[in-house]
Amino acid sequence: MSSSPPDRNSPHAQGAVAALCLAMSMIVLSTAGVAMAASQPRRNDRMVAVYPPWWTPAMAASAAAANGALTASGGWPNSWIVSSSQPDLDQRLRRSGALVILDSALARDCAAPEERARP
Fold it and tell me: pTM for the complete prediction?
């Protein structure tokens, strides 16, 4: 007695594939949402701005400095910890070309190693 292969076009198989795709999509979207929420700046006066990797360090520093005081260089290339008492620092940094804006709580982790040692 030979068994026939399962019919991939059956409604049951198509429903299982659709359910699997939906479950995977929900996992990916919720993980991305949690990651984005965790990285959103909580403080409005101090943020980490990451500029495009194709910019020179001088271009990134100039763009960041136009929006506030450069507190420290980041541990990543073209990242700066920027402080400002002016409102909407995150929006100003984005307009200046920053690709990513991170919470200041991450500022210590983003600082260059010699700056992490400072209290």
Answer: 0.57
